Amino acid sequence: MMDKNKKQILIVTAVEAERDAIMKGLYRTENIHVIAGGVGPVSAAVNTTKALCTSKYDIVISMGIGGGFVGRAEVGSIVVANKIIAADLGAETAEGFSSLDELGFGSAQLKVNQDLATKIFESLHKTIPNVHLGPILTLSTVTGTAETAAKLTNRIKGATVEAMEGFGVATAAVKFDIPVLEIRTISNPVGPREREAWRMKEAFEGLTKTSTVLQEVFS
Ligand SMILES: O=C(O)c1cccc(C(=O)CC[C@H]2O[C@@H](n3cnc4c(=O)[nH]cnc43)[C@H](O)[C@@H]2O)c1
C-alpha cells in the first residue's frame, strides 16, 4: 500500500539481474519500485515514460552496473552522478566531435538533483569506502578501445563512468518535472574489450549495498 508520507521512488535498471540485486537490499518495498527497462537509452526512456504515466513518483533513479574510467572510478566502486551526459549525441566534423549544445539543437547534458546526489553520496560514504561523485556518460555503443576511452576523457571534463541508459531515463523524468539521479557500480574499466576481467559479482553486491542505503535515506 502507498505510504503518502514517504517519497515514492522509481528505480530503473537495464536488466533483471540488476533489478534482483537491488531488490535483495530492500527490506521494505512500499515506496521503492524497481523496473528493468531494457538496455540502451531508447528502451530506458520508453519504459521510464510508461512507468511515469502509470503511477506517481517523486524521484527517478537510473541504476545499474557501468564501466569506470581509469583513474576516476575503480572496479568495485560506486559512483553517484553529478551530471548525466549523452556522450555520443552530436555530429562528427572534420575538426572533431560537436555536441548537441554546440550544434544548437538542445543539450546533451541533464542536471541531477544536486542536494539529493550529495546526500546519497555522503550516506554511502559512511559505510562504503570507495564511493565517488562525477559525470556519468550515456553511450549507445560500449567503448572497446583505449583510443576511444582517451577521446572521451579528453572531450568530457571529469568523465567518471560510462553506461547506456542514464540519459534516456533522465530525459523521461525531466519531461515529467521529476528530480532524477543516476548511480552505477563499476563492473569493468572503460577501454579494451576484456569480458573475462568483468567483476559482475562485486558490481551486483554494490547494487545491493546501495539499495539498502537508499532505503534508509528515503525512509
Ligand atoms: O560484450 C562486450 O564486450 C560488452 C562490453 C561492455 C558491456 C557489454 C554489455 O552488454 C553491458 C551493457 C549493460 O551494462 C552497462 N555497462 C557496463 N559496463 C559498461 C561499459 O563499460 N560501457 C557501457 N555500458 C556498460 C550498460 O549500462 C548496459 O546496461 C558488453
UniProtKB/TrEMBL annotation:
It comes from the Bacteria. Residues 21-197 form the Nucleoside phosphorylase domain. It is an enzyme of class 3 (hydrolase). Its EC number is 3.2.2.26. Keywords: Glycosidase, Hydrolase, Menaquinone biosynthesis. Pathway: Quinol/quinone metabolism; menaquinone biosynthesis. It catalyses: futalosine + H2O = dehypoxanthine futalosine + hypoxanthine. CDD domains: futalosine_nucleosidase_MqnB (cd17766). It holds the Pfam family PNP_UDP_1. InterPro entries: FL_hydrolase_MqnB, Nucleoside_phosphorylase_d, Nucleoside_phosphorylase_sf. One of its GO terms (molecular function) is hydrolase activity, acting on glycosyl bonds. PANTHER family: 5'-METHYLTHIOADENOSINE/S-ADENOSYLHOMOCYSTEINE NUCLEOSIDASE (PTHR46832), FUTALOSINE HYDROLASE (PTHR46832:SF2). Catalyzes the hydrolysis of futalosine (FL) to dehypoxanthine futalosine (DHFL) and hypoxanthine, a step in the biosynthesis of menaquinone (MK, vitamin K2). Belongs to the PNP/UDP phosphorylase family. Futalosine hydrolase subfamily. HAMAP family: MqnB (MF_00991). This is Futalosine hydrolase. It comes from Chengkuizengella axinellae.
